Amino acid sequence: MERISPNRLGVRVYLANCIAGEPGVIVGYDRSGKAQVHWPDLYEEMGKDTFHALDTLVRDESFVVSQLDLFDMDEVAA
Fold first, then answer.
1. Which of 19, 22, 63, 67 could form a disulfide with 14 if both were Cys (CB 3.0 to 4.6 A apart)?
2. Which letter, b or e, does each residue of 35-64 get, where b requires 16 or more Cβ atoms within 10 Å of its Cβ?
């Protein structure tokens, strides 16, 4: 399981013990270091944002930027 870096916002993640549905997105951190994750497929009543310890999250490896030709390669950071 790949460790989630605590300084990366926007990382798409799943809960380690529940890899189903749409991945969530890390949108922030609280003072204790837990990640605030936005889950787009949760019902509004359940709350869209939840907090999780970093070691309970798994990075979504299925997301790939496949259309790099849309960008001027001089503008893409290495």
1. 19
2. bbbebeeeeeeeeeeeebeeebbbbeeeee
Picking from 28, 31, 78, 35, the residue whose alpha carbon sits closest to that of residue 56 is 35
Query: pTM for this structure?
Result: 0.69
Question: Six-digit token pair at 60?
Answer: 């979504």
Looking at this protein, which amino acid is placed at residue 33?
G
Return the beta strands (E) in 2-72 as ranges: 12-15, 24-29, 35-38, 49-52, 57-59
13 contacts: CB under 8 Å, gap ≥ 6: 4, 23, 24, 25, 26, 35, 37, 57, 58, 59, 60
